[in-house]
Amino acid sequence: MGYSVFFQLLGLLSPAPALGEIDPSYAQEIRLLCQLETIPMATLSALTPTTTVQEQALRRILRQESAPAQRVAALLIAQAKSAQVWNLELLHAAAKTSDDATALACVLAWQPQADPGIAAMAFLASDSARTLAIRAAACGALLEAGLISAWPLARSILRTGTAADEDAPWANWPRHGRYELPKRLLVLAIDRARLKVGLKACGFEPNDSWQNQVITLQNMEGEIISLKRAFAKNPSRDKWIGKLIKMTALYPEKALWATFWIHDAAKEVLRFGLTHPDLAIQSQSRKIIRSLPR
Q: Count of domains in the chain?
């Protein structure tokens, strides 16, 4: 990932809070876990942070230590009861790392909600410099947050490799024949979102025949509207969505698509953009509204 992409993504995130005092013995336990081939769930559960100094140790590891240690930290954060307070930290770590597995672990640990970081998550889902697995996980997070405007991207990922594979401008990932992991990550997120609204699992199987995948996907299409969530006005979140809209003129391949995927949460910001004194923002807002994917 190039430095330009790194700075583009960080531009959509508020600054991470300053680090405080850490628990050094807790940090050392996490480093030791990195030497294991597999980590038992019981071990992870026992190390879930319970004190402020342990939480600070995790923050320092995410910012400063090795990729394996960062991945363990992301696993521990995913289990924390107050996991949503970690969303900003996880997105900062995903933006800064050059290790794909670490970025994926951070995206998967992110707790779906329409918080200020939703703009950065949408940017990750749109970034052609990222692996399809990372983009699929980010897209799944958007759907879990109730942003059904991300469905065209999800549908394109699930169609990949089949006879229905499409040459959509946002479907700009390599066709290499290895799609099980990204599709499975996306389907797991879709199923979690469906279960929250009382629907059964979608039944999509990434190892099924191409033909059966297309049929199952067609059956899923009509139920996507059920995942939609209403979004209350959030000045902090809207500030970062506004930044994303401004970026669409400079980075159309990523920022423009990213704004599409969060259109449900961005409607009010886009309407404000239509009357903004900056003519460039007016123009971009009109462009986004006119060309929303279907």
A: 1
